Amino acid sequence: MNVLNALALGVVVTLIPGALLGELVKALLPVFPQGQLIIQATQVANTLMGAIIGLMVGQFFKFTPIQTGSTCISRFILRRCSNIQS
After folding, report:
1. pLDDT tens, per residue, the chain with 86 residues
2. What is the rounded radius of gyration, in angstroms, for the C-alpha atoms of the chain?
3. How high is the pLDDT of residue 81?
4. Which parts of the chain fold into alpha helices (H)?
5. Which residues are within 8 A (CB) of 60 and not within 5 positions of it... i.e. 6 or more apart?
6. What is the largest CA-CA distance in the chain?
7. Helix (H) or strand (E) holding 62
8. How far apart, in whole angstroms, are the C-alpha atoms of residue 45 and residue 1?
9. Are 8 and 52 in contact (CB under 8 A)?
10. Whole-number pLDDT of residue 31
11. Measuring CA to CA, how many Å separate 69 from each of 18, 49, 63, 74?
C-alpha cells in the first residue's frame, strides 16, 4: 500500500500544479508572452515525475536519505527507459 500511496501522491504533486499553472498562463499568453518560459518550466517538472515518485516512496518507507536518493534515481531511470522502449 505504501508504494501505491507514494505513486498517487507523486503524480498529484507533479501534475496538478503544472496543469493549473499551465492553463492559466496559456490564457494569458497573448498579453504576457514571457509566460512561455513558465509553460516550459512546468513541462520540465513533468519529466521529473519519476524522481518525485522515488522520493515519495522513500518517504513512505522511512528510508535514510541515501536509500531515498537511490530509490529516486532508479525510479527516474526506469521511467525514462520504459518511455524509450514504447
Report:
1. 878 888 888 888 888 888 888 889 989 989 988 888 888 888 888 888 888 888 888 888 887 777 777 777 776 676 666 655 54
2. 15
3. 66
4. 2-28, 35-47, 49-60, 65-85
5. 2, 3, 5, 6
6. 47
7. none
8. 25
9. no
10. 92
11. 24, 14, 9, 9
Q: Which helix (H) or strand (E) holds 67?
A: helix 65-85
Confidence (pLDDT) at 85? 52
Q: Contact at 8 Å (CB) between 50 and 15?
A: no
The conformational region for residue 62 under phi > 0 = left, psi -120 to 50 = alpha, else beta, is left
Cβ pair 77, 56 in contact under 8 A: no
Cell representation of residue 32: 504576457
